[in-house]
C-alpha cells in the first residue's frame, strides 16, 4: 500500500505527481486534476480560498485511501491538496491512482475525490464581484 498524501500552500506540480504514481506493473493510471473555474451557479468567480485543519485532513485522507485499497486492487494512491488563495485556472487538488487495470484506477479515483469532498476538513470560500460565500464542505 503506497500512498503520498500532502497539503501544500505552494502550487501543485502535476508532473511530480504523475512521475510518482507511475509504476511498471500499472496498466492503468487515473489522474483527477481539480481546477478553479470562473463561474459557479451563474455567478462570476474572482478567486477561491481554501483552509484546512491539516492534521485532521491528512488523517481523514489516510482513512479514505485505506478504504480505496480495500475496495479495489490498486497499487499506488496520491492525494495532494492546496490551501490558500487560488486564482482562476489554478489547481487546488490532484488525485492519482495506479492499478494493473484501468477500471480499478477509475473507480478508486472517483471514490477518493467524492469522499474527500464529503468528509475531509478542507473548506472553500468563493469570492464574487458582489460578495463571498463559504461552500458547505460536508453537505
Shape, principal axes of CA atoms? elongated
CATH class: Alpha Beta
The low-pLDDT segments are: none
Total of DSSP H or I helical runs spanning 4+ residues: 3
Here the CATH topology equals Aldehyde Oxidoreductase, domain 3
CATH architecture: Alpha-Beta Complex
Total beta-strand segments: 9
As a whole number of angstroms, the C-alpha radius of gyration is 15 Å
Main structural class: alpha+beta
Q: How would you name the CATH homologous superfamily?
A: Molybdopterin biosynthesis MoaE subunit
Q: How much of the sequence is in beta strands?
A: 35-45%
Distance between the termini: 30 Å
Q: H/E order of the elements?
A: EHEEEHEEEHEE
Whole-number total of structural domains: 1
Largest sheet: 5 strands, antiparallel
Helix coverage percent of residues? Answer: 25-40%
User: What does the average pLDDT come to?
Assistant: 95
Secondary structure elements and their pairing?
Layout (H helix, E strand, L loop, with lengths): L1 E7 L5 H8 L6 E7 L4 E2 L2 E10 L1 H18 L2 E9 L1 E4 L5 E7 L2 H18 L2 E7 L2 E5 L4
Parallel strand pairs: 1-5
Antiparallel strand pairs: 2-7, 3-4, 4-6, 4-8, 5-7, 8-9
Helix pairs in contact: 2-3
